[in-house]
User: What shape does this take?
Amino acid sequence: MESGKVLWTDKKRTLFGWPISFTRYTLHEDKLYTTVKFLSVTEEELRLYRVIDISLSKTLFDRMFGVGSIICHSSDATSPSLTICKVKKPEQVRSMISELVEKARKDNNIATGEFITTDRPMFRPEY
Assistant: This one.
C-alpha cells in the first residue's frame, strides 16, 4: 500500500454498526484501497481520476445505526463498481471522495466529460 498521507480510513461495519469485519477502506489523496484480511490478503486499488459517478445507499437499519454504503462507478477494468460497505458518516466520506476525484482529474489533466448513452436516438432537426 502507498506510504502517502491517509485522509480517511474505516472498517466495514456489521451488526449494530460495530466494526467487526475483515474489510478495511483507506483513502489517500489519489487512490482508494479496499483490503480484506482473513486467511489471505486481498487488496483492491482504485485510482480516483477513474471514478465516473458516486452514489450513496442507506437502508432503514443503516440509518438507525448511522452507517451507509458508497458506490463508486469507475472506468477501471477490474472493478467497474466498487462499494464501500457500511461506513460511519457516509455523506462526509462521499463528499470527500467527490472533491478528491475532481482534484485528481485536474492534477492528471483529464477533462471532465459527460457520458452519452446510445440507447436513445439523438435529436436531428429536419431540413
Observations:
- The chain has a mean pLDDT of 87.
- Residues 8-107 form a domain with the PH-domain like fold (CATH 2.30.29.30).
